[in-house]
Write a structure and sequence with these properties.
EC number: 2.10.1.1
Number of strands: 29
Largest sheet: 8 strands, mixed
CATH superfamily of the largest domain: MoaB/Mog-like domain
Strand content: 25-35%
Keywords: Magnesium, Metal-binding, Molybdenum, Molybdenum cofactor biosynthesis, Transferase
Function: Catalyzes the insertion of molybdate into adenylated molybdopterin with the concomitant release of AMP.
Catalytic activity: adenylyl-molybdopterin + molybdate = Mo-molybdopterin + AMP + H(+)
Protein name: Molybdopterin molybdenumtransferase
Bound molecules: ligand LQZAQKY5, molybdate ion
Length: 428
């Protein structure tokens, strides 16, 4: 994430088996160091032309030029009468010489001393420079009486006043939202040169996980991270090609990871990366020689795995706690997906906000605290929801922001200014 402290000059430290229980042999990194390491795993995917209807949320691989002027000709902004401004006076009565609906392709001219009935979006006839809305007239069809005047040039949209043929209307790296797609269509395009969407496979691990609803035995829980991460990947612009839920079986996890690696651009796993006896993703990454285990100095999201599968596909192993998985996706996976997608800006918007109430934070770990942002006043106000527990999914679902508490801070007081990551999806 931006606004970060500079990475340490020295190489990554190896963590001793100390009181933080991060585990022997783990690489210790700051959030920014790990985010940079993950981002370095990918580059924008190849470009192709994709129909506009399938391009929402993709990023342009090249600048796009307009084929036409917008508007393409002088057009009326109102239903009414087109005429020469010189002929308009309050109380004037003019002959209605013609009728121009939208879609009229005849070249119509308004004679001096006459008016042409015109509809919104229709071409303004030659000779006319002004449109009088129908409400300011008697609405006549043979002869029309003008109740009052409008300024010369009123309600005429000039050819090319919005976009000119040859203008670059969108740039490489722009992510296509609804308005951008509308602009592409209006400027004569039926498809767009965009980078491929990253193909993402999601793997949840844990013998306690149950899919498909139904009653739970003691010790079981409904699987949720797979659903959550797949949705987050789609919201980031990715294609989710597979979602698997696996038990705590190392050979099985290893086999599935390698299989998915051949079909995906990124494999995301959740669970089993900590220091427990059955942390199978950790063991599969080590057994397959596919990656390293990392202790990131953050909360939530401390245990992480990262590497490459035999196909070369990056594998990102997030912790199993639902809030940890979600926040880890936000700060590590999403920027990589945005990079593969070719987006110019891979990071979420960060804003300065006022903290509504005191919060505490662990020393030495950068905390990303779930919060709601109130934008109703001048400066946004951030209210933490649910506290720091990384199991608090109910609170996560109410949050729309992350308060970024620096690693060295152990307390931030009400009224202090904090940096906040805005999690709301932009309209691209
Ligand atoms: N002795 C230590 N224990 C733990 C440490 C530590 O340093 N020393 N770190 C803790 C931290 S911090 C985290 S985060 C977790 C991460 O552990 P894992 O990645 O191995 O995750 P699991 O143990 O598999 O699961 C944790 C938690 O999340 C639930 N879970 C897992 N997957 C799903 C899913 N797909 N859907 C819903 N919920 C899921 C799981 O049932 C557990 O409750 O380790 C701490 N422990
Ligand atoms: O680092 Mo864990 O992700 O705090 O719960």
């Amino acid at each position: 994430m931006p606004d970060a402290p500079a990475p340490r000059a020295a190489g990554p430290a190896r963590d001793a088996t100390g009181p933080d229980r991060s585990g022997p042999g783990r690489v210790v990194r700051t959030l920014d160091e790990h985010a940079a390491a993950v981002l370095a795993l990918g580059a924008p995917l190849p470009a192709r032309r994709v129909p506009l209807a399938e391009s929402l949320g993709t990023a342009l691989a090249a600048d796009v030029v307009s084929a036409v002027d917008l508007p393409p000709w002088d057009s009326s902004a109102m239903d009414g009468y087109a005429l020469r401004a010189a002929d308009l006076r309050a109380g004037a009565v003019l002959r209605v010489a013609d009728d121009v609906p939208a879609g009229e392709t005849r070249a119509v001219t308004v004679p001096p001393g006459a008016a042409v009935r015109i509809m919104t979006g229709a071409p303004v006839p030659a000779g006319a420079d002004t449109v009088v809305p129908v409400e300011r007239t008697d609405g006549g069809t043979d002869r029309v009486t003008f109740h009052d005047v409008v300024p010369p040039g009123a309600h005429v949209r000039r050819r090319g006043e919005d976009v000119r043929a040859g203008d670059v209307v969108l740039r490489a790296g722009d992510v296509l939202g609804p308005a951008a797609l509308g602009l592409l269509a209006a400027t004569g395009h039926v498809d767009a040169p965009v980078h491929a969407r990253p193909r993402v496979a999601v793997v949840s691990t844990g013998s306690e996980l149950v899919t498909g609803g139904g009653p739970l035995a003691h010790g079981q829980i409904h699987e949720s991270n797979g659903v959550q991460l797949a949705a987050a990947a789609r919201a980031a612009g990715a294609d989710v090609v597979d979602v698997r839920v696996l038990g705590d079986d190392v050979p099985d996890v290893l086999r599935v990871l390698e299989e998915l690696g051949a079909r995906a651009d990124v494999v995301v796993t959740t669970g089993g990366v900590s220091v427990g006896a059955y942390d199978v993703v950790r063991d599969a990454l080590v057994a397959g020689g596919h990656g390293e285990l990392v202790h990131v100095r953050m909360q939530p999201g401390k245990p992480q795995g990262v590497g490459r599968l035999p196909s070369g596909t990056p594998v990102l192993s997030l912790p199993g706690n639902p809030v940890s998985a979600h926040v880890s996706f936000e700060v590590f996976v999403r920027p990589l997906l945005r990079r593969l997608l070719g987006a110019r800006d891979v990071h979420r918007r960060r804003v300065r906000a006022t903290l509504a109430a005191d919060v505490d934070s662990p020393a030495g770990r950068r905390q990303l605290l779930r919060a709601r942002l109130d934008w109703s006043g001048g400066t946004p106000v951030a209210t933490a929801v649910g506290g720091p527990g990384s199991h608090l999914l109910g609170a996560l679902a109410r949050a729309d922001a992350l308060v970024d508490v620096p690693a060295e801070a152990t307390h931030v007081g009400a009224g202090e200014t904090v940096t906040v990551v805005d999690l709301r999806e932009a309209d691209a």
